[in-house]
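Dear support,

I submitted the protein below through the web form. The confirmation email said the job was done, but the results page showed an empty box. After a refresh the structure appeared. I'm attaching both so you can tell me whether what I see now is the final result or a partial one.
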Amino acid sequence: MHFLSEQTFNGFYFLAPWLVFAPVIGLLINLFFGKKLGEKTVGIVASLAAGTTFIVALLLAYSVSMNHGEMHSVKLAEWIHIGALQLDWTFRVDSLSTTMMLVVSGVGTLIHIYAIGYMHEDVRFKHEEGRFNLFFVYLNLFIAAMMILVSGDSYMMLFVGWEGVGLCSFLLIGFWYEMDTLARPSWANSNAAKKAFITNRVGDFGFLLAGFLMFWYLGSFQFDEVFHAAPEIAHSMPWVIVAITIFMLVGVAGKSAQIPLYIWLPDAMAGPTPVSALIHAATMVTAGVYLVTRSAPLYSLVPQAQYIVAMVGAGTALFAATIAVGQYDIKKVLAYSTISQLGFMVAAVGMGAYVAGMFHLMTHAFFKALLFLSAGSVILGLERGHHAHAHHDHKKESDSEASRHRRSQETSHSKHGGHDSHEEVFDPGDMRNMGGMRKTMPVTFWLYIIGTLALAGIFPFAGFWSKDEILLDASLHFPVVYGLLTIAAFFTAFYMGRQIWMVFFGEARSDPAKHAQESPKMMTVPLMVLAALSVLGGALNLPFEGFHNLTHWLSYTLGEMHGLPLNLQVAGISTALALTAIFISWLIYGRNPLKAGQIDPLKKPLGFVFTGMENKWFVDEGYGVLVIKPFKWISQFLADVIDWRFWHDFVHDTVIAGTYNWISEIALNRYADQKGIDAFANWLGDATQWLSATMRKVQNGFVRSYALSVLLGVVLILGYLIFK
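What the results page shows now:
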C-alpha cells in the first residue's frame, strides 16, 4: 500500500496537462480527418477524448486523496514574465479543482456519447450531414476550455478558460445559424448566439475590473499570493476587497446567468440539445459558482459582499422559477429552471455555505443533464413521428396531380434542399404539440420522471439532499434568503409537474405525438447512467455522522468545515411544499389534460400575472427599451450625424477636401502656377524671342558686315592685349 501511495504521488500528477491535451487532440483529429473517418469514428474519437479527460481527473483526485488533500502544482511552461508579474502556465490539483474536473469530464463524456445518436438524426432532419464532425470539434473544444478554467493556478489562467467557454457557447448556440425554417428563422439562432456572447462580455468586463484591482493592490494573479496579501489590504483599505468581490459578482452574473445578466441563457436553447445539457448542466454556467468558491478567502473578508451575492442568488432563484411556470417550450422550461437552480448555488456560496453550493452543483449536473437530454429524446421522438407521418401522407397522395403540385410549391420554399414548408411549421419543442408520450416513449418517460423528482427535491433523490442543505444553511443565518429559496422550491416542483402532465399524460395533441418513436440505446443508455446518479448522488454528502464525505473532501481546500445534521423541520417543510405543488399541478394539468388548441388553464384565472410569466415578465422588452433602443439610437446618431454628416460631409468633404480644392485651385493654380510659374515661363519665352530677333539682325547675310565684325573683333583683342 505504501508503494502504491508513492507511485500515486510521483506518477499521477504529471498527467494534469492531459486534461487539456486529450480533448485538443480529439478535436484536431476530427477537424482535419473527420470527413474521411465517418460519423461513428468521429463520435468515438470525441467521446474517447472526453473519457480520457475523465480518467485523468480520476487519477488526479486519487492522488489528492492519497496525499491527504495536499495541493500540488504542475508547471507546464513559462507564460507571462513582465517586471513584477511572473505567471506560469500551471495546473492546480486540489480537492476543489478535481471535483470540478470530475463533474465536467464525467457528465461531459456521457453527453458526448448521447450526442452521437442525437446528431446522427438531427443533421439528417436538417439535411446537413456534412456538419456532424464539426459539432464534435466544438464539443471537445468546450471540454478543453472548461478544463483550463477549473485547473488553472491563477485568476489569469482561469480567465483564459472563462473566455474559451464563452467562445464555445457562441459557436454551439449558433450552430444552426443558417438553418432557416418557418417555425424558427435563421436569424433567431444567430441572434441567440450573439446575445449570449455580448451578455457574457458585459459580465467579463466586471471580471477584468476585479483583475485590474487585484493586480494593482494585491500585486499578483496567483491564487495563494492573492489570498496571502488580501487580509492586510482588507484591514487597511477594505473597499478594495469589496470592489474586487462585487466586480467578480458581475462576472458571475454573466457566466452563471444571474440577475440582471441571465437573459442569454433561455435563448441558448437555439443550439442542439446536447449543447443545452453541456452548457446548462456541467460546464459554462457552473463557472461562476466555482469562481466564488475558489475566491472564498476573499469573500470571507467582506461579509457585506457575501450578503449581496446571497441575495442576488436567492432573487434569481425565485424570479426565474416564476417565469418557468408560463413557458411552453420544453427546453425553455428547463432553461429557466437552470437559472433558478444556479440561484440556489450562488446563494449558497454567497452565504459561505461553499460545500452546500458545490454539492448542489454536482447533483444538479446529474439531474439537469438527464432532463435536458431526455427532452432532446422527446424532441427527436416527435421529429421521427412527424417525418414518418409526413412520409405516409405523401405516399398516399403520391399519384395525385394536386400532391405533385403541392410538393413543387413546398420545394420552392424549402432551404438547403431540406424540410418542406409543412414540416417547417411544426415545432417539436412545443409542449402543446405533445401529450400521451408515456405510451410511445416509455423509457424516456421513466427517465424524465427520475430527473423531475430529483429536481423537485423529493426524497430520496439527489436533489433532496443538496437543496435541503442549502435551505438549512439559509434558515440558520439568512432568513430572507431562506424565504425566497423556499418559495422558489415550491415553484420548481409545480412547473416540473406541469411539464410532466403536459408532455407525457393525456391524449396526443398532434399527429407527430401519436406517431412518436422511442430513442435508440446510444441515447438512452447515457440517460440511464445519469438517472442512477440522480438517484444515488445524494450519497456524496449525506447529513449523518460519518457520512459528510464531500464536506471532508472540500475541507482540504476550503479549510476546516463541519457538516450540518439533517433538520427534519426544514426538510419536512420543503418536501411538503414540493408534494403540494405537484398535487396542485395535477389538479390543473393532470386531472383534466389539455386538449389540442386549448389555452393554458392558468391563463384566465391568473390574468396579467400569467401573462407576465408567459412573456418572461417583459424583461427582454425592458432591455429593448432601456438598452437596445438607446444603443441603436446612439449608433445611428454616431453613424449618420457624427460619422457621415459631420466627419464625412463637413470634416472630410468641406474642411479637408474643400480646403484642398481651394488651395489647389486658387493658391496653387491661379497664383502660384498661372501668375508665378506660367508668367516666368512666358517671360523666358518672350526674352528668347527678343534675343532671337536681335541676333537675327546681326546675321544679315552681307560679306562686308561679317568682315567689319571680324575687324572690330581683331581691334578689340589687340587693344586688350596692348593695354594689359
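Response: this is the final, complete result; the empty box was a page-load delay. The two ends are 127 Å apart (CA to CA).
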